[in-house]
Amino acid sequence: MLCENKMITIEQATPADCPVLALMNRQLIDDGGDDSTMADPQLESRMYHWLQGDTYTGFVFKLNGETIGYALIDVSERWLRHFFICRIYRRRGYGREAVRLLMKHLGVEEIGLSCLTKNVSGQGFWRSFQHEAYSTNFSVQRPDIAQLRDEAE
């Protein structure tokens, strides 16, 4: 069932979108299991900085005029930094349609992205597309950190 015959549109995000994008970013952080302690005003400020900078372009997805998701793209690298669809609109085809609209708008046939390990539903979503894994990211600690902790105790 693709989008239940409701119209999804894509628009470039503006600074006026930052408050709602920050709230969605908080949900995306929660979905990813990230333990970020950034407060909503910090997330809004960061989003504003990203939209005003030269690296990222933001897009909002709207359903009948209501913002239901967003994407943050490093257009020069064709890298999807954030992709989010509100929980109440998931598993109804809106995410897939938003990806289609985004890629069509960007004029690309493929785009790179990463998905946090703890974001199991996000991984399932991205695996539903034809894809090719081309890297594995690691977060490693300095080898002597554990030893230093043991010595401190």
TrEMBL record:
Gene3D superfamilies: 3.40.630.30
Any single Pfam family the record assigns to this protein: Acetyltransf_1
GO molecular function, one term: acyltransferase activity, transferring groups other than amino-acyl groups
Sequence ranges assigned to domain N-acetyltransferase in this UniProt record: 8-151
InterPro entries xrefs: Acyl_CoA_acyltransferase, GNAT_dom
Name of the molecule in the record: GNAT family N-acetyltransferase
